[in-house]
Design brief:
- The structure holds two protein chains of two kinds.
- Chain A has a single domain, classed as MetI-like fold (Orthogonal Bundle), CATH 1.10.3720.10.
- In chain A, about 80% of the residues lie in helices and about 0% in strands.
- Chain A has eleven helices and no strands.
- By secondary structure, chain B is α/β, with parallel strands linked by helices.
- Chain B folds into two domains: about 160 residues, Rossmann fold (3-Layer(aba) Sandwich), CATH 3.40.50.300; about 60 residues, no CATH class.
- In chain B, about 40% of the residues are buried.
- The chains are: A mainly alpha, B alpha/beta.
- The interface between A and B is medium-sized, with 20 and 24 residues.
Chain lengths: ~260, ~240
Amino acid sequence: MRALLLADDRTPAPVWARVGSFLLALVVFAGIGAGAFALLDYQWQWRLAGSYWRLFWDGWVTTLEISALALPLSCLVGLLFASARRSPVRPLRDFSRIYVEFTRGTPLLVQLFIYWYAFGQKLSTDYRLVSGALILSLFEGAYISEIFRAGIESVGASQLETARALGFTRGQTYRYVIFPQALRQSLPPLAGQFASIIKDSSLLSVLGIAEFSLAASQVNSLTYTTFEIYLSVAVGYLILTLPISLWTQQWEKRSRFET
Amino acid sequence: MHLSLEALNKSFGTNRVIDNVTVDFGELRSLALIGPSGGGKSTLLRIIAGLETPDSGGFALDGQRVGADEESLRVHRQHLGVVFQAYNLFPHLTALANITLPLEKVHGLTPAAAEEIARETLRRFALADHAHKRPAELSGGQKQRVAIARAIAIKPRLLLFDEPTSALDPEMTAEVLDVIEELKDEGHDFLLVTHEMGFARHVADRVAFLAQGRIIEHGPAGELFAAPQSRECRDFLARILRH
């Protein structure tokens, strides 16, 4: 019983205690939510909201597509700007700095409109989703470049020197010595950023891209079943973000090494 | 090897670390650099290792002057084996991969050939059982022996040891010094920066005493330790051998 309630970080807890404690916390969390809704005296109309499942599904799939494009793309953008930041060419470093400061200092919504009316509009509607994902990647890439930069800087100067002493080229040093170690450092903040990308994709609705949250607001204007819809939407986003969080935690464990 | 330094200068800011050093050590198998901290031993080793470029002057190895541009320095570094005080293994790689990585990427060996050499080298240093351990799982002495294995696996023309035992306790120091002595017996040429005077005397053909950025004196190990010519070297040895 004591193991269920109190954590002792010096000894690992038995499985039953960990599962039991998790379930207990989950029940309390759900209880608080259920209690709050019970107080509202709300008339639930799951059937009505559910009759629009097709719209939800299409929106969820669109969000999945945007995320599938934006996750690797924003990593690429991040890698490019993080590398530029370490480049021997000085103006390239400054360009990267200016870009990152501009991007992190202004709201995504504002950038969406600027990029969209400057470039995206000229594209045919077929490319709407792709250009939306691209703008999102340019935004998130700035954050990811800072995550990578911190990771690269966490690798000690002695590692660089050792690679040099062994006769590695600059490119090889980064590829085989710096990046593998930097990536390990970058994983936890990267997982958080990935979840942000998926959540931020909801802002693409302002460009008329029929992603998950736009679908939800459409159904809401038809049925006024706000809670049914947005609780479902919350679950829909969790289905996308939770696996990423769990996957990166696994990956982190696997690539763990002490320095 | 034949090592000669020519009007070598190196400053860090206003601090002159190597002060116009010209010397021809002649033909020798092993050279130990000794002297007080901050005297320029490690900087000299790092210049010869191609890790630091001198402000002026240069050095020649076996009669060939080593260029100061990055590309010739990189080629120069490829044929040296450097062992650092803090081992400097790659923490994300196993002992085996620490050795195979430079063999494959710098020297162009196939993965199979690289692994064979790496396993062979680890076996020599009684590290075969540790091939798949990461550095964090090894003791200090084991780490340094893996680092030495990595350095000799590429068949370097010259080994450079930069205070290889300064981070080790006495037992592990003995372990590493035994390995260095073995390498000498096998005919590897090396340059050694050390505070282990007994070892320097025992293992080095020649010893050079550095202080204030200059080589105050150098000579055969036995002679230099038995009868140092300069007052600086006499004082240094008296201080260090008192305990």
